[in-house]
């Protein structure tokens, strides 16, 4: 599936079994996402909260946003999210990869990552990096990511 400029939505999974119901899962690259829904999703995996204002700026300035959701009572329920920042030429970095615990283990994390990588490749970006929490290193390795290639180590600077 090619997801270039999907500002509306595409059907990703038809009739997924969820709590005795059949639901459809959709994907969109629309940046206009509900920040409260994103905060709720991040809360569901125990991430530390970030100021809304900054999250809004980060999303606006991201190269690519991918959201996964289902529709309940005419509302979009956000269940997956990932984004990438980029110099639009050589490099991109993937951030905030998350799938709601109720929907983990169903292949959605892999779909999110595959779609981000496909989109970045389409933009001719050849170096894709990310920072993996220890418990998800194998998840990313299975997707083809290498830890510290050529001995390169990530380095961080924080304000003192
Ligand atoms: C990491 C995360 C996005 C994976 O999403 P998911 O929808 O559960 O993953 P999938 O079902 O697509 O799994 C794809 C494959 O990765 C494997 N996998 C999933 N999570 C894994 C983990 N933590 N460690 C190792 N392998 C993992 C699955 O077993 C599956 O393998 P298979 O293809 O051989 O069957 C999800 O667990 C999550 O949101 N975690 C909390 C937030 C987080 O830690 N994000 C990463 C921050 S760096």
UniProtKB/TrEMBL annotation:
Domain (N-acetyltransferase) ranges:
31-160
| Annotated GO CC locations | cytoplasm
Q: Which CDD domains match?
A: NAT_SF
Q: Which InterPro entries match?
A: Acyl_CoA_acyltransferase (IPR016181), GNAT_dom (IPR000182), NSI-like (IPR045039)
Alphabetical UniProt keywords: Acyltransferase, Chloroplast, Plastid, Transferase
Q: Which Pfam families match?
A: Acetyltransf_1
Q: Which GO terms describe its molecular function?
A: N-acetyltransferase activity
Q: Does the keyword Chloroplast apply?
A: yes
> What protein is this chain from?
GCN5-like N-acetyltransferase
Q: What organism is this sequence from?
A: Sheathia arcuata
Gene that this polypeptide is encoded by: ycf52
């Amino acid at each position: 599936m090619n997801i270039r400029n999907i500002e509306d939505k595409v059907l990703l999974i038809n009739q997924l079994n969820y709590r005795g119901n059949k639901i459809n899962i959709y994907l969109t690259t629309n940046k206009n996402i509900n920040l409260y829904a994103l905060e709720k999703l991040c809360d569901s995996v125990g991430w530390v909260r970030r100021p809304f204002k900054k999250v809004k700026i980060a999303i606006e300035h991201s190269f690519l946003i991918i959201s996964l959701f289902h529709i309940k009572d005419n509302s979009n329920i956000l269940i997956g999210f990932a984004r990438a920042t980029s110099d639009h030429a050589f490099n991109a970095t993937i951030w905030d990869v998350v799938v709601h615990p109720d929907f983990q283990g169903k292949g959605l994390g892999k779909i999110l990552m595959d779609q981000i990588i496909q989109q970045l490749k389409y933009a001719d970006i050849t170096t894709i990096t990310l920072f993996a929490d220890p418990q998800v290193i194998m998840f990313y390795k299975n997707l083809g990511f290498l830890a510290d290639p050529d001995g390169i180590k990530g380095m961080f600077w924080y304000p003192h």
